[in-house]
Design a protein that fits this description.
The chain is mainly alpha-helical. It is built from 14 helices and two strands; from the N terminus they run H-H-H-H-H-H-E-H-H-H-H-E-H-H-H-H. It has two domains: 272 residues, ABC transporter involved in vitamin B12 uptake, BtuC (Orthogonal Bundle); 36 residues. Helix 3 packs parallel to helix 5.
Length: 338
């Protein structure tokens, strides 16, 4: 029954996403939703390394920038077709993530996080200062939209919305297969205890590196989609603020859950858009709301719901066991008297 309810819930979410453009008032709202889907893809990747493997990566936003700039540089400067540049973005982030992972994952805990924060800043400086490659502070303009595939064309906001939604669904499906597989259990064993995972025969370095590479590939593809949707890139995409936004999405929704990063991304995006009328003062409202969520829902919205559901199930099982205990005792006493 729980599985059926879960399937029904995901189906309702898919129907709502498909129907959203029918109720959107203008293309601006559709574009905002498209960017939310892109950030959700990146948040899924961050959730894999942080939520399921327990490694707090603070360079995730920078890898998203690597994917975006790979598409921008190849399409604008070298006239490479969009989809070839798109695949190159995933490959570039995977290769870069592999070597950075080999270096950073030798560290543990806060040391790993500090190291990745330094890596993020170095990547930001490279993008900002390497003008001959990245165009520096000017950024890259005129990035082409994703080229059509057969009769499908992606030049309009509505078409890009459904394109990004398709990639989000694909990313969710792949992520669900990963976390429910033996590999996913290995990631969670590492998260729970390095020593215990090693005692079970798990190769710590290989498992952490694989999780790191998979997570940054999600960020790279999200960045590639971002480049094709926004069509302009600046160094700010590689700043730590993007990573902190992704961390906020995961924490608000529920770290270590599949639905959490999506719910957190959509909720925070909707809230920030709703407070646009406050302009510079919107953080006065948004900040306390976020703090309240973290204080009263430390496991996130989805994590808290799952935890309370498990507690209710445990209480129900305990009550059933307590009700069955006297009956068993009476039966035993009757056998003894006989």
């Amino acid at each position: 029954m729980n599985w059926l309810q879960g399937k029904t819930g995901w189906t309702l979410l898919a129907v709502a996403a498909l129907a959203f453009p029918l109720f959107a008032q203008n293309n601006y709202l559709i574009s905002v939703a498209t960017q939310a889907f892109i950030m959700a893809i990146a948040a899924l990747g961050l959730n894999l390394i942080t939520g399921y493997t327990g490694q707090f990566n603070l360079a995730h936003g920078a890898f998203m920038a690597v994917g975006a700039y790979t598409v921008g540089i190849l399409t604008v400067d070298h006239h490479v077709p969009f989809w070839i540049a798109f695949l190159a973005a995933g490959l570039m982030t995977a290769v870069l993530g592999f070597f950075i992972g080999l270096l950073s994952l030798r560290l543990r805990g806060h040391y790993f996080s500090i190291f990745t924060l330094c890596v993020s800043y170095i990547m930001f400086l490279l993008i900002e200062k390497w003008e001959s490659l990245t165009h520096g502070p000017v950024g890259i303009m005129g990035i082409p939209a994703p080229t059509g595939i057969g009769p499908l064309q992606f030049g309009t906001p509505l078409a890009q919305y459904y394109l990004v939604l398709a990639f989000l669904v694909l990313g969710l499906w792949i992520m669900s297969r990963i976390v429910r597989s033996l590999l996913g259990r290995s990631f969670m064993a590492v998260r729970n205890s390095d020593d215990l995972a090693e005692a079970l025969g798990i190769d710590l370095m290989r498992t952490k590196t694989l999780s790191f590479v998979l997570s940054v590939v999600y960020a790279g593809f999200a960045g590639a989609l971002y480049a094709g949707q926004v069509r302009f890139l600046g160094p700010d995409l590689a700043s730590e603020a993007v990573t902190f936004d992704l961390v906020m999405f995961v924490l608000v929704g529920g770290i270590g859950t599949l639905l959490g990063p999506l719910l957190g991304t959509f909720l925070v995006t909707w809230l920030t858009q709703s407070l646009q009328f406050l302009q510079d003062y919107r953080m006065v409202v948004f900040g306390p709301v976020l703090i309240a969520l973290i204080i009263f829902l430390p496991d996130g919205i989805v994590g808290t719901w799952l935890k309370r559901r498990a507690q209710r199930a445990d209480a129900a099982n305990a009550a059933k066991a307590a009700d069955a205990a006297p009956t068993g005792a009476v039966a035993q006493e009757a056998r003894n008297n006989a």
